[in-house]
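Support request from a user on the community tier.

User writes: "When I paste my structure tokens into the form, the page sometimes reloads and wipes my input. The last time it worked, I copied everything first. Here is what I submitted, just in case something in the input itself triggers the reload:"
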């Protein structure tokens, strides 16, 4: 399928569905693109816009002015909404509606792409819902999310959901290694399926420090009995980066998933494979139920952070909850 070659390798079913819908004139006005970070949702959204607006009969040409403007994110009829801070605000959706009410400079379809759509505030979601209930002709919405369940049910009911499959862990690691990502490869693969983000993380000194912080946090529980909240306070500079607190929690979740895998004998796909001595100590002092409970607490902390809770207070609460049934191995 011309123009879709790169995306088609990762998401053949998604590409086939959209291209067939376009060719048979069965496109709907709203789509939810759901899947983990880096699985190609953004690339599919961009290609969708090109397919709609390309001037060539041989879609997607990649050479016409529409394709070029979309590729460079400069097309006046393609609107992109991203979170401001931790959320997408009502004013952003209202601004989008205002743009759609204007006469377009280009006499062609309009497409709006909302990234991290699950981060819309309640008022923003309600504003978008009104937009979806009375769709304009030749207007298409693409809502990108890692979890469609975080969207309002009424929004989900007015859109077709396309679920993107993620690469298997070992396949992703192999792909990264072939691309020259050799540091922290298995841990990076646990966080993102976007090769550019993976490369950036792998080469970041802060990412190396984040891994060190995870290991020191766990030592507080299983070895030193030091207060992990004090440790977090010492690393505040590291956690002030955008998205750093959430990355810390995802890395900690990954650590406890590895411990669970050790307990059930799955030792081939560990993300912390280069830190197995740490995992072994944690595995000895945590029961399987402990691991499940702690994973649940970390996920609850993640939800609180996504709801704009104070990060330090969030971590304080998490550590108190995690201490519940820990056995210290001093």
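"...and here is what came back when it finally went through:"
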């Amino acid at each position: 399928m011309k123009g879709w070659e790169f995306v088609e390798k990762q998401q053949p079913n998604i590409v086939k569905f959209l291209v067939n819908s376009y060719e048979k004139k069965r496109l709907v006005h709203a789509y939810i693109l759901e899947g983990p970070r880096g699985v190609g949702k953004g690339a599919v959204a961009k290609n969708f816009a090109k397919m709609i607006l390309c001037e060539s009969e041989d879609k997607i040409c990649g050479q016409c002015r529409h394709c070029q403007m979309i590729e460079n994110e400069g097309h006046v009829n393609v609107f992109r909404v991203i979170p401001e801070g931790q959320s997408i605000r009502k004013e952003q959706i209202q601004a989008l509606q205002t743009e759609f009410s204007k006469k377009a400079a280009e006499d062609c379809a309009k497409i709006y792409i909302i990234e991290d759509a699950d981060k819309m505030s309640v008022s923003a979601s309600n504003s978008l819902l009104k937009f979806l209930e009375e769709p304009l002709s030749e207007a298409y919405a693409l809502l990108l999310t890692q979890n469609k369940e975080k969207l309002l049910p009424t929004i989900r009911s007015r859109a077709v959901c396309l679920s993107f499959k993620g690469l298997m862990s070992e396949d992703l690691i192999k792909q990264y290694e072939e691309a020259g990502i050799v540091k922290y490869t298995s841990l990076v693969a646990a966080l993102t399926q976007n090769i550019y983000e993976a490369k950036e993380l792998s080469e970041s000194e802060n990412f190396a420090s984040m891994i060190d912080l995870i290991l020191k946090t766990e030592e507080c529980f299983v070895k030193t009995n030091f207060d992990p909240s004090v440790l977090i306070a010492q690393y505040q500079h590291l956690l002030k980066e955008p998205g750093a607190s959430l990355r810390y929690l995802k890395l900690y979740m990954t650590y406890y998933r590895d411990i669970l895998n050790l307990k059930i004998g799955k030792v081939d796909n560990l993300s912390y494979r280069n830190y197995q001595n740490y995992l072994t100590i944690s595995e000895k002092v945590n029961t399987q139920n402990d691991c499940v409970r702690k994973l649940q607490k970390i996920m609850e902390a993640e939800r609180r952070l996504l709801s704009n809770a104070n990060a330090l207070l969030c971590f304080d609460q998490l550590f108190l909850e995690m201490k519940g049934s820990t056995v210290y191995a001093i």
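Agent notes: The reload is a front-end session timeout and is unrelated to the input. The radius of gyration is 22 Å. Confidence is low (pLDDT under 50) at residues 325-330. Escalated to web team.
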